[in-house]
Amino acid sequence: MVVIYEYLIAPFADFGFMRRALVASLALSVGGSAIGVFLILRRMSLMGDALAHSLLPGAALGFLLGGLSLPAMSLGGFLAGVATALISGVIARFSSMREDASFAAAYLTAMALGVLIVSLRGSAVDLMNILFGAILAVDETALVLVVSTATLTLVGLAAIYRPLVVECFNPGFLAAMGIRGSVYHYLFLSLAVLNMVAGFQALGTLMALGLILLPAVAASFWAREVWSMTLVASPMAFASALIGLLVSFHAGLPSGPVIVLFASLFFLGSLLLGSRASVRARLSHPVHLRG
Amino acid sequence: MNAALRLVNLTVSYDRHPAVHHVSAEIPAAEMTAIVGPNGAGKSTLLKALLGLAPHIEGRIESTAKRIAYLPQQAEIDRSFPISVFDTVLLGRWSRFGGFGAAKHVDIHDAQHAIEAVGLSGFERRPIDTLSVGQFQRVLFARLLLQDADLVLLDEPFAAIDSKTVNDLMAVIQRWRAEQRTVIAVLHDLDQVRRDFPNTILMARELVDAGPTARVLSAENLLRARAMAEAWDEHADACDVPMKLTA
After folding, report:
1. What ipTM was reported for this prediction?
2. Under an 8 A CB cutoff, do B70 and A225 touch?
């Protein structure tokens, strides 16, 4: 019993930064996995990742003006992300370029610009913090930001759920109804960017999507409706964060990558053992049905 | 003839190249009209223009339709998306509950009814990615049924569909006609057009002929349509047909 307490409970009971990290990851898991599920269903997982990288110049500009202040960097990151999404959308609409190509162009530009801006004033450590995050440095302000994001995400997604689903699978239907589906597309992208900003403090701009996408991909091996995928993804995200935090605490490893790696383990496990379209489902040869 | 739609010197272009070129025609109300022509003739583009979805339109479309229902080509729908047959059909009542309202009992009842009408009873909870092409087309027809439109546009409703399904869905279309709805369908099977559609618009970017099917689908017209359907001219000069024709 004492051992269990010492390994599983004590880190959180004894250290405020561990408690805050735990609450932050819970909030991230709840809001982020719904975003992740929609990113996958929209076939936008890689574009989402590019979008997360593009927060960098905004966050860097915030850093340049306000130092290591979370509100300044978050606001900058949010604006940069939304701008990238809008600009690539506009480029794709008004030229024959495909949206994934314009996203790639936009995020590479943004990354280069961001690294340059940070190097103007910051040290290599600052750059590492921005790129890879520091979940153990989550303070009260960051906690409020992350929890508000999760709340806004759930309320926002609930509000635009139906048009967003239809826009995903049959955009022409909305158009024929005289509804501009792109409005919901961009509302969704704004919520996605908001979650990346929240994830950015914990996991950095390079891996902000780790807790958002990996559990959602893993969930697609277990569930086959939007709501049930989300319900499966959230607990997996939180479990990855919880285990990741404990392992990184005891082993003295950086927490961000360890958390993302545990999310990857959930993905691998689901890929192998999931109930649908998994390796297990492929290899087991159940008797086929009568009809 | 009571026209549901009147196209007046209609030109629809992509990137300045016309996909529909100076087309004028009348489409009778409460009747079934087929749009026929070779690939690339601008048939789907014409439907998009009727829906108000075409990017660039010159000329005029005069319409008396209050509510339009549209059956897209299946390629325009992501059939791997996780949504059930019932939810897909119920979307037909979008004009009632919109993006945010709740479906009423009568809508749910009607959706159930439409699913039965297209012969899909028992499929309500099935995700759409488990359906065959024909079954999914039945789902889309059930959704059209719920839309209760006075103008129904069908883009290749029977592409890659077996004859049993075609017959069942044709019966649904005949019912629309009996209910005084106007039906316009893009079709490729000329025998079927001759059998079931009293009116035809034959086009190859430009109008070849429009009117009673027996006259429009003459061997001579079909030959002309094929000759006109050449690939577009990358270096075409500006069109000098005046836009202000008296139709």
Report:
1. 0.81
2. no
The chain B residue lying nearest A223, using CA atoms, is B82
B96-109 per-position pLDDT tens digit: 888 888 899 999 99
Rounded CA separation A226/A34 (Å): 8
In-domain check, residue A284:
no
Whether the CB of A114 is below 8 Å from some CB of chain B: the reply is no
The answer to whether position A283 is within a domain reads no
Please give the structure tokens belonging to residue A120: 């103007």
Alpha carbon B152 to its chain centroid, in Å, reads 7
* B residues 54..73 contacting A (CB < 8 A): 68-70, 72
Q: Which residues pair with B152 in a beta bridge?
A: B69, B183
Q: pLDDT tens across A35-84, in order? A: 999 999 888 888 888 888 888 889 888 888 887 778 888 899 999 999 98
Q: Which residues pair with B61 in a beta bridge?
A: B7
**Is the Cβ pair A168, B81 closer than 8 Å?**
yes
CA distance B137 to B157: 8
Any CB–CB contact under 8 A between A226 and chain B? yes
- A159–B81 C-beta distance less than 8 A: no
Q: What is the pLDDT of residues A213-249, one digit of tens each?
A: 999 999 999 988 888 999 999 999 999 999 999 999 9
Task: Return d(Cα A111, Cα A95) in angstroms, integer.
Answer: 23
The pTM for the full model equals: 0.85
Question: Does residue A32 lie in a domain region?
Answer: yes
Q: CB-CB: which of A41, A159, A163 is closest to B81?
A: A41
Q: Whole domain around residue A144: which residue ranges?
A: 2-278
Does some domain include residue A289?
Answer: no
What does the alpha-carbon distance between residue B210 and residue A132 come to, in Å, rounded to a whole number? 66
DSSP state of A6: I
* Yes or no, beta carbons of A179 and B72 under 8 Å apart: no
CATH number, domain with residue A47: 1.10.3470.10
Helix (H) or strand (E) holding B35, with range, is strand B32-36
The SS3 call for residue A254 is: coil
Calpha distance A265→B20 (Å, rounded): 55
Check if B242 contacts A (Cβ < 8 Å): no
Q: Is B15 left (phi over 0), alpha (psi -120 to 50) or beta?
A: left
Phi, psi dihedrals of residue A284, rounded to the nearest 5°:
-75, 135
* DSSP assignments along B202-244, one per residue: EEESEEEEEEEHHHHT-HHHHHHHHHH-PPP-TTPPPP-S-S-
When divided into structural domains, chain A yields a total of 1
**In angstroms, rounded to a whole number, what is the distance separating the alpha carbons of residues B9 and B207?**
10
Assign 3-class secondary structure to A58-84.
HHHHHHHHHCCCHHHHHHHHHHHHHHH
* C-alpha distances in Å from residue A240, one per residue of A29, A37, A45, A215, A234: 9, 17, 19, 9, 10
Q: Is A229 on the interface with B (CB under 8 A)?
A: yes
- Tokens 């299946």 belong to B74
CB contact under 8 A, B72 and A172: yes
Interface size between A and B, measured as CB pairs under 8 A: 53
